[in-house]
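Why does residue order matter? Because the sequence determines the fold. Keep that principle in mind as you read this record.
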Amino acid sequence: MTDTTTGAPSAPMGRRERKKAATRQAIADAALRLFLERGYDDVGIREIADAADVSTTTLFKHFLVKEALVFDEDADQETRLIAAVRERSQGQSIPGALREHALRHRIAAVGSDAHFTAFFDLVNSTPALRDYGQKMWLRHATALAQAIAEESGLPVDDPACTALAHFALDAPRSARSHADPRQAVTRAFDLLEQGWSALASQA
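Structure:
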């Protein structure tokens, strides 16, 4: 097992940590199943806790707000994004690393996984989830821009780093409406690659 923030080997999860992770996953799975069956607004916290066979107190220990039940991989997604930049292969560009990450983690299921499609339909049709997702997106963009700046030796407030972070996060989302999402993502990142290369040559 590897610590994705440092690249160093991490200690195996102990029994307590495994149990907590399993409980968290069971709660998230139960919540999403009920949300997809009946709609987000028509499912209560008590119902979710009962379906996961936990107390509401336990549920709130894992998820502070109801919206977080849908975005249970929020922290992991941000960690993977940062790792894609910091742990990219020798000689690989930052846009290239982010393209590889997008194709591996964000596009693989598009168009082939009905559950994946239903998840996005749920989010897009629920104002509370759309708002939460947008705030999450902005947090990821801020963290990613900082990592890009640090890896590039640029100021943390450099607008180019902010722009690359935003475009890199938005490209997979925009590609979902295309007949071939993988090709759409690849073409978008080709454009980002050219622009970033031009910027680097001016530095």
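The chain has a mean pLDDT of 87.
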